[in-house]
Specification:
Shape of chain A: globular
Number of helices of chain B: 0
Order of helices and strands of chain B: EEEEEEEEEEE
Radius of gyration of chain B: 13 Å
Largest sheet of chain A: 7 strands, mixed
Helix content of chain A: under 10%
Structural class of chain A: mainly beta
Helix content of chain B: under 10%
Mean pLDDT of chain A: 97
Shape of chain B: globular
Low-confidence stretches of chain B: none
Mean pLDDT of chain B: 96
Largest interface: A-B, 25 and 26 residues
Largest sheet of chain B: 7 strands, mixed
Oligomer: heterodimer
Low-confidence stretches of chain A: none
Structural class of chain B: mainly beta
Amino acid sequence: EVQLVQSGAEVKKPGESLKISCKGSGYTFTTFWIGWVRQMPGKGLEWMGIIYPGDSDTRYSPSFQGQVTISADKSVNTAYLQWSSLKASDTAMYYCARNAKVGATQSAFDYWGQGTLVTVSS
Amino acid sequence: EIVLTQSPGTLSLSPGERATLSCRASQSVSSSYLGWYQQKPGQAPRLLIYGASSRATGIPDRFSGSGSGTDFTLTISRLEPEDFAVYYCQQYGRPPSSFGQGTKLEIK
């Protein structure tokens, strides 16, 4: 069974750093792109970027380029999303999701993690 | 970036009725790389349709997708109580991928 399990909720202060994780299981982790999606409170879905765990090739939305870093460690089947200096506006639910088509950047997301709620408040 | 506009913003219908949700793209979506998702409160989105018209695994056949180019439609033939949720379209044909703002399907 394919599963994406994300790390738990975080409460941080502005200016702090953070790295959240998404562990994949039940499939060959290195052959499917993994994406990150932001959902701000009461709002819609925003595509942030994707990574290919096989070689760590990464693509970002221009809206998020330079604001976050997406990475992966194929030895532990885990993708990451990190911030070096959080802002209050980073408060949101963050989902990881797997591209449905093996090896393809252009794909819908077929499996989703449960979400990680990040709260940034002084 | 391709902007997706969904309409209506909110759709009020009764169980058993037919629902028609629209997704319009600011530019043509290549190869019908268009998906639809359902999201219920407190849950992650669920893929319903990919490639504009193909149902994802386990999705009931009352859900169907159609369209090409810039105009796409999700149709739910006969609404079940569990279908009331928010629906999003996503284009993944031209990077960066993007989502529509969502249509809330509520019980009338």
